[in-house]
């Protein structure tokens, strides 16, 4: 990852955290000051979907050109994507506690997100249950395609077809319908970009670290 992208990621999130906590927000019924959570909760889901998409790309690349590097990148981007998903779930539960009265309501989008994460948890269970490296990589790549295909309807399609407390679902208006304060957009969109860049940075670091660890293990085996 380019150095200027790393600097941009840190600068953007520094701005998002300061402006997100101190800038004025519209006074909306029920939400009140908790609307600031949109700067931290929603971008996590954008980051998760983006990282899962990158993981899918490397999974397809592995099936086309089987290399350890493609498998490693696919695995690590999925790993960081799950971490973002968990953070998105936790920030959403915290927000729901103050706006809906409890952290979990069985809302269709909550349930869909939880199931999508479980599908990806199964991806790592699959990787841990196969010893043969080549077989593990191939099965994981195929399962990755299935997991991404399952995630899209679970998060974006099915919740919109049912009654939901989330904005933009089941006839419930989205934020843009009743939130016309452009100042929020000046923080919200950079937040999405910043968190995605941080996710890419972390995944890149994990990939490089795993590569170095495997090289060290190979050197030890050769010495012994």
Structural description of this entry:
By secondary structure, this protein is mainly alpha-helical. 75% of the residues lie in helices and 0% in strands. α3 runs antiparallel to α4, α3 packs antiparallel against α7 and α4 runs antiparallel to α5. The longest helix is centred in the last third of the chain and has 42 residues. It is globular, with a radius of gyration of 20 Å.
Radius of gyration: 20 Å
Relative strand content: under 5%
* Helix-strand category: mainly alpha
Count of alpha and pi helical runs: 7
Query: Sheet with the most strands?
Result: none
How many strands in all?
0
SSE sequence, one letter per element = HHHHHHH
User: What are the segments in which pLDDT stays under 50 over at least 5 consecutive residues?
Assistant: none
**Helix content estimate:** over 70%
Mean pLDDT: 87
Terminus-to-terminus distance? 35 Å
What is the 3D form?
globular
């Amino acid at each position: 990852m380019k150095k200027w992208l790393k600097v941009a990621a840190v600068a953007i999130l520094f701005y998002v955290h300061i402006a997100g906590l101190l800038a004025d927000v519209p006074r909306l019924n029920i939400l009140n000051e908790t609307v600031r959570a949109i700067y931290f909760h929603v971008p996590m889901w954008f980051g998760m979907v983006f990282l899962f998409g990158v993981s899918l790309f490397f999974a397809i690349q592995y099936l086309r050109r089987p290399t350890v590097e493609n498998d490693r990148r696919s695995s690590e981007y999925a790993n960081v994507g799950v971490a973002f998903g968990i953070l998105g779930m936790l920030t959403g539960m915290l927000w729901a506690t103050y706006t809906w009265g409890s952290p979990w309501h069985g809302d269709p989008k909550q349930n869909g997100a939880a199931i999508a994460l479980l599908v990806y948890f199964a991806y790592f269970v699959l990787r841990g249950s196969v010893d043969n490296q080549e077989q593990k990589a191939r099965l994981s790549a195929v399962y990755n395609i299935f997991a991404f295909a399952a995630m899209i309807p679970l998060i974006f399609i099915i919740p919109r077809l049912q009654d939901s407390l989330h904005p933009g679902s089941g006839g419930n208006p989205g934020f843009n319908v009743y939130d016309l304060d452009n100042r929020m957009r000046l923080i919200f969109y950079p937040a999405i970009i910043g968190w995605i860049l941080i996710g890419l940075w972390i995944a890149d670091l994990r990939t490089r670290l795993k590569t170095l660890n495997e090289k060290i293990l190979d050197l030890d085996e050769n010495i012994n």
